[in-house]
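Technical annex, item 7. During the second reporting period the consortium partners agreed on a shared format for inverse folding records so that results from different sites could be compared directly. Each record opens with the tokenized structure and is followed by the designed sequence. A conforming record, contributed by the partner at site C, is shown below for reference.
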């Protein structure tokens, strides 16, 4: 996966995230719809974190003269539990 395709995926996910956030306001009177929106929003947020992590890995590898194509997407569990 190239940097460009990762960036395009990030853009699509950000667009979906924004749509979900605005739908969340409209769906607030409907608990079932609201729950679905929130579940999907959480999935999108995790996928965004994974994409950003992969993009950073690729750029770091390239910066240090390594093959960026050797970077691999990490699991959601790994990415979501980084120490800050």
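Designed sequence (site C submission):
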């Amino acid at each position: 996966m190239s940097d460009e395709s990762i960036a395009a995926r990030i853009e699509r996910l950000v667009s979906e995230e924004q749509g979900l956030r605005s739908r969340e306001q409209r769906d607030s009177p409907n608990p079932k719809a609201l729950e679905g929106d929130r579940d999907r929003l959480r999935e999108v947020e995790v996928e965004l974190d994974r994409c950003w992590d992969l993009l950073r890995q690729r750029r770091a590898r390239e910066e240090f003269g390594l093959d960026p194509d050797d970077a691999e997407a990490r699991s959601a569990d790994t990415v979501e539990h980084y120490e800050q």
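The radius of gyration is 16 Å. The helical segments are 3-27, 31-63, 76-80. All partners now use this format for quarterly exchanges.
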